[in-house]
Amino acid sequence: GVPAIVVFLNKADQVDDEELLELVELEIQETLTTYEYPGDEIPIITGSALLALESLTQENIDNSDKWVQKIYQLMDTVDEYIPLPKRDTEKPFLMAIENVVSITGRGTVATGRVERGMIEVGQTVELVGLKTTRETIITGLEMFQKTLEKSVAGDNVGILLRGIQKDEIQRGMVLAKPASIKPHRHFQAQVYILKKEEGGRHTSFFAGYRPQFYVRTTDVTGNIKTFKSDDNTEIKMVMPGDRIQME
């Protein structure tokens, strides 16, 4: 879930009664407490986004306007109350590719969120998954139209790749530090088949069933060859609620 929240109570300019605003704040606190948040501790800032925007878009911008100050107060509160997420920068670089674009005169750009580690312009990475693994060099990094020299875990970034054509890369592949990960096409797993009441299946299935696997940003169709029970006895049919080993 969401670990920390700051509440902005909008349209405060349309309420003249301060007691009514206090009543609404109490209701917000009760609602937050109902959902197991510390309702008495979560900051609640009242203001008017519309009047703040109008004040800043006039010819004479007035930063001292009380509604503008409410927005500044909101952002200061966000900085103080919401902790910075811990970035997983110690592990080898890994980014799942979400989209691929071709920029005329520059090359192919892969976009996505850096899952772990950090990367710098000029470093070598591997393009892994779905096709033959190959190496490439990062020639540019960009985030929100801003050029970067390096990117760290948590960044949504566009990575310009040297010598990679658009048809050689696709969503679902990953960029990773060379030799840090290895793709696999065959594996064994122990799974529990959800019942209908748990949001799962309501019919049985057999060997040869082709489920859809969702891994990071890709989804691929697999093929289940065999089923085994917990005691390694091979079984022919699987029912919802069963715990099995499959290959």
From TrEMBL:
Keywords: Chloroplast, Elongation factor, GTP-binding, Hydrolase, Nucleotide-binding, Plastid, Protein biosynthesis. Residues 107-176 form the Translation elongation factor EFTu-like domain. Its main location: plastid. The keyword Protein biosynthesis applies. Pfam families: GTP_EFTU, GTP_EFTU_D2, GTP_EFTU_D3. One of its GO terms (molecular function) is translation elongation factor activity. InterPro entries: EF-Tu_GTPase, EFTu-like_2, EFTU_2, P-loop_NTPase, T_Tr_GTP-bd_dom, Transl_B-barrel_sf, Transl_elong_EF1A/Init_IF2_C, Transl_elong_EFTu/EF1A_C. One of its GO terms (cellular component) is chloroplast. Gene3D superfamilies: P-loop containing nucleotide triphosphate hydrolases, Translation factors. It is found in: Plastid, Chloroplast. Residues 180-247 form the Translation elongation factor EFTu/EF1A C-terminal domain. CDD domains: EFTU_II. Residues 2-83 form the Tr-type G domain. One of its GO terms (biological process) is mitochondrial translational elongation. This protein promotes the GTP-dependent binding of aminoacyl-tRNA to the A-site of ribosomes during protein biosynthesis. Belongs to the TRAFAC class translation factor GTPase superfamily. Classic translation factor GTPase family. EF-Tu/EF-1A subfamily. This is Elongation factor Tu, chloroplastic. It comes from Codium recurvatum.
